[in-house]
């Protein structure tokens, strides 16, 4: 019930978004939705089937290029296809590419599988600039969205709603896939491939199909990007794209169905918001990723589920602890950001070095609207103290939790047999 | 004489220079419960891996109901009607008992690529799943993760998994390993029940199990069969006593 309400709320916010967001933000949200669908497609392979692909950008980009070519063909009148259906061609291309690559990659398991997927994607990435006909060389390819019925696809909102519809449709299909007999078998693959074989299933064929389906949805996501940006470039095939989908999936949580979508949304929005504030946003994104992996290895969706369960079971102690942890968390965050920002500003060769040379002094820099003098000890000590105090608090809170936990274990221990 | 369910003819397996299985001839009759015993390192597990397709034979042949299966991959051997359990429990730990057995039961109905059938609507599969669950007496833990079951429950599930594809020939690799006396008795009873009307080949160390469960026994020593016969014959066989039983039973 709560799940349905949450979903309905998220859906309502997404549908109403154009009412309260400016076009630029709608563009950001569009890319976030595409990243969400991509992460969900990726997680079918990684989370459900237990095959960690390091080269999923390949199927994303193949879908994107297929769609750009389709759009060009529609534009020139060579073929007829309603514009909102164009992303479908990304799915077709992704499926074909995925079945082909999957045939080779799924012959191996574990790390070897990951390496093969990485190698296949990098191979394509290296070849792409030379295959100008299909990938458009260094400059890439562009096209125009053609009008369809009453829609001219000229506004951010029309694009946004098309992408939203495809994303929801794609995620719904992935959900349905999980409910099928084959979807159940897919999870078995993750748990024990040997058992699958000895039950009479051809594990290799099964894995190829899973790979193909995952690549198909990745291709749709790539197609949506081509559709939304009206362009495609071979750099989409690169490691960055393959890495970011892994990142999104694990931040969100690969064990919860919508976890990857959550991770993608959060990271896309985080990137967009923070990159407006500081050029160190990638550093913060990296730190965030490391922290989440260290302290909530199963992702943010799992954290959410835990909190909901604690509310349900009226576990006030646990909830109070979480709220308490926010205080030192804030201290550490503010302290760390201050040190990082001041450091990065005085290390900035172009701007800061010239002002140092001109004024023959180290001028103060502004962080959080406060002016920090780099030559003053206070500038460094204050944030450092904040961090240390924060860590001390965390330690105290966790130590108490430890104590309580061992206490309960002793009390609830069953009599020895 | 009825046709043999499993027939091994001059079966050999080498790993490099090591010959582990050195020419084994054996006929397991249809519907019999047959035990394979022998000291550690005799090659019992290797022989099981050969029959079930995990290893390919270096020489010789394996017949299942008269047809050669030597060198076939495991999934094809299972589809021909032979399935097995493992000494190291091979189940799906992060799936419920019901999901475990459902994947096993799907195979029996050939629903190997059922991309468009919802699991909850697959009536025959779900019915078979419930039957399997009752057969191995795990209905009370239906929704528990397999990984959270007790060890003996996991071993029972392991047998359920082997029964799932509906094969007529069942290979069980040390089903009682690591069990208490009580649990062993429970398991003997369970195995006897699930293998009614089937052919069973079982590797087991516990002599009490072997003698009470099986119709015939084969003794494997250093990759060679030194005797095959009824329990009493095996007990009184001098070579067997010398090689193996002497220290245990005498």
UniProtKB/TrEMBL annotation, chain A:
<feature type="transmembrane region" description="Helical">
    <location>
        <begin position="323"/>
        <end position="340"/>
    </location>
</feature>
<keyword id="KW-1003">Cell membrane</keyword>
<feature type="transmembrane region" description="Helical">
    <location>
        <begin position="157"/>
        <end position="177"/>
    </location>
</feature>
<feature type="transmembrane region" description="Helical">
    <location>
        <begin position="208"/>
        <end position="228"/>
    </location>
</feature>
<keyword id="KW-0812">Transmembrane</keyword>
<protein>
    <submittedName>
        <fullName>Branched-chain amino acid ABC transporter permease</fullName>
    </submittedName>
</protein>
<dbReference type="Pfam" id="PF02653">
    <property type="entry name" value="BPD_transp_2"/>
</dbReference>
<dbReference type="InterPro" id="IPR001851">
    <property type="entry name" value="ABC_transp_permease"/>
</dbReference>
<feature type="transmembrane region" description="Helical">
    <location>
        <begin position="26"/>
        <end position="45"/>
    </location>
</feature>
<feature type="transmembrane region" description="Helical">
    <location>
        <begin position="377"/>
        <end position="398"/>
    </location>
</feature>
<feature type="transmembrane region" description="Helical">
    <location>
        <begin position="281"/>
        <end position="303"/>
    </location>
</feature>
<feature type="transmembrane region" description="Helical">
    <location>
        <begin position="86"/>
        <end position="105"/>
    </location>
</feature>
<keyword id="KW-0472">Membrane</keyword>
<dbReference type="InterPro" id="IPR043428">
    <property type="entry name" value="LivM-like"/>
</dbReference>
<feature type="transmembrane region" description="Helical">
    <location>
        <begin position="256"/>
        <end position="275"/>
    </location>
</feature>
<keyword id="KW-1133">Transmembrane helix</keyword>
<feature type="transmembrane region" description="Helical">
    <location>
        <begin position="57"/>
        <end position="74"/>
    </location>
</feature>
TrEMBL record, chain B:
<feature type="domain" description="ABC transporter">
    <location>
        <begin position="6"/>
        <end position="247"/>
    </location>
</feature>
<dbReference type="InterPro" id="IPR051120">
    <property type="entry name" value="ABC_AA/LPS_Transport"/>
</dbReference>
<keyword id="KW-0813">Transport</keyword>
<dbReference type="InterPro" id="IPR027417">
    <property type="entry name" value="P-loop_NTPase"/>
</dbReference>
<protein>
    <submittedName>
        <fullName>ABC transporter ATP-binding protein</fullName>
    </submittedName>
</protein>
<dbReference type="Pfam" id="PF12399">
    <property type="entry name" value="BCA_ABC_TP_C"/>
</dbReference>
<keyword id="KW-0067">ATP-binding</keyword>
<dbReference type="InterPro" id="IPR003439">
    <property type="entry name" value="ABC_transporter-like_ATP-bd"/>
</dbReference>
<dbReference type="InterPro" id="IPR003593">
    <property type="entry name" value="AAA+_ATPase"/>
</dbReference>
<dbReference type="GO" id="GO:0005524">
    <property type="term" value="F:ATP binding"/>
</dbReference>
<dbReference type="InterPro" id="IPR032823">
    <property type="entry name" value="BCA_ABC_TP_C"/>
</dbReference>
<keyword id="KW-0547">Nucleotide-binding</keyword>
<dbReference type="Pfam" id="PF00005">
    <property type="entry name" value="ABC_tran"/>
</dbReference>
């Amino acid at each position: 019930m709560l799940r349905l309400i949450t979903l309905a709320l998220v859906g309502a916010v997404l549908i109403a978004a154009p009412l309260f967001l400016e076009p630029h933000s709608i563009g950001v949200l569009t890319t976030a939705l595409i990243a969400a669908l991509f992460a969900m497609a990726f997680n079918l392979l990684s989370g459900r089937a237990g095959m960690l692909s390091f080269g999923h950008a390949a199927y994303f980009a193949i879908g994107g290029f297929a769609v750009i070519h389709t759009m060009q063909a529609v534009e020139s009148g060579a073929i007829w296809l309603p514009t909102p259906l164009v992303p479908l061609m990304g799915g077709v291309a992704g499926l074909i590419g995925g079945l082909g690559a999957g045939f080779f990659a799924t012959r191996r398991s574990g790390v070897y599988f990951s390496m093969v997927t990485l190698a296949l994607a990098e191979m394509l990435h290296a070849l792409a600039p030379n295959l100008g006909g299909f990938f458009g060389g260094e400059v890439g390819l562009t096209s125009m969205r053609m009008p369809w019925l009453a829609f001219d696809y000229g506004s951010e909102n029309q694009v946004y709603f098309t992408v939203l519809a495809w994303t929801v449709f794609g995620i719904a299909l992935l959900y349905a896939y999980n409910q099928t007999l084959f979807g159940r078998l897919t999870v078995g693959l993750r748990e024990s491939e040997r058992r699958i074989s000895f039950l009479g299933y051809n594990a290799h064929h099964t894995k190829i199909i899973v790979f193909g389906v995952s690549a198909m949805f990745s291709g749709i996501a790539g197609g949506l990007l081509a559709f939304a940006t009206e362009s495609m470039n071979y750099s989409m095939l690169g490691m960055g794209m393959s890495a970011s989908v892994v990142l999104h999936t694990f931040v969100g949580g690969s064990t919860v169905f919508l976890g990857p979508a959550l991770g993608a949304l959060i990271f896309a929005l985080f990137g967009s918001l923070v990159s407006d504030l500081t050029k160190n946003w990638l550093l913060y994104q990296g730190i965030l990723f490391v922290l989440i992996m260290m302290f909530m290895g199963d992702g943010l969706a799992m954290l959410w589920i835990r909190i909901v369960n604690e509310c349900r079971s009226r576990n006030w102690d646990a909830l109070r602890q979480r709220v308490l942890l926010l205080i030192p968390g804030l201290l550490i965050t503010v302290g760390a950001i201050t040190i990082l920002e001041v450091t990065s500003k005085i290390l900035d060769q172009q701007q800061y070095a010239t002002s140092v040379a001109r004024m023959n002094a180290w001028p103060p820099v502004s962080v959080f609207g406060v002016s920090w003098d780099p030559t003053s000890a206070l500038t460094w000590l204050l944030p450092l103290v904040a961090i240390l105090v924060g860590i001390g608090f965390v330690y105290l809170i966790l130590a108490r939790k430890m104590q309580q936990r061992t206490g309960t274990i002793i009390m609830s221990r069953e009599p020895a047999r | 004489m009825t046709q043999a369910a499993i027939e091994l003819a001059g079966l050999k397996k080498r790993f490099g220079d090591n010959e582990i299985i050195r020419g084994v001839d054996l006929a397991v009759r249809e519907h019999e419960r047959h035990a394979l015993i022998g000291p550690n390192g005799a090659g019992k597990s290797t022989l099981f891996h050969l029959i079930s397709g995990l290893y390919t034979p270096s020489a010789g042949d394996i017949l299942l109901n008269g047809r050669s299966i030597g060198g076939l991959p495991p999934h094809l051997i299972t589809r021909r009607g032979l399935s097995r359990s493992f000494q190291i429990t091979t189940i799906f730990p992060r799936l419920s008992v019901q999901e475990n057995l459902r994947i096993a039961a799907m195979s029996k109905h050939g629903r190997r690529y059922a991309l468009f059938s919802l699991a909850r609507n697959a009536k025959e599969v779900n019915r078979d799943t419930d039957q399997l669950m009752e057969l191995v007496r795990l209905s009370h833990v239906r929704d528990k993760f397999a990984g959270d079951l007790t060890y003996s429950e996991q071993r029972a599930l392991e047998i359920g998994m082997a029964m799932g594809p509906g094969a007529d020939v069942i290979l069980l690799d040390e089903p009682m390993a690591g069990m208490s006396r009580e649990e062993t008795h429970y398991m003997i009873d369970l195995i006897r029940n699930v293998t009614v009307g089937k052919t069973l080949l079982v590797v087991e160390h516990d002599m009490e199990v072997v003698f009470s469960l099986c119709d015939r026994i084969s003794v494997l020593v250093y990759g060679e069969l030194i005797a095959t016969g009824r329990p009493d014959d095996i007990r009184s066989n001098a070579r067997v006593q010398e090689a193996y039983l002497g220290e245990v039973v005498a």
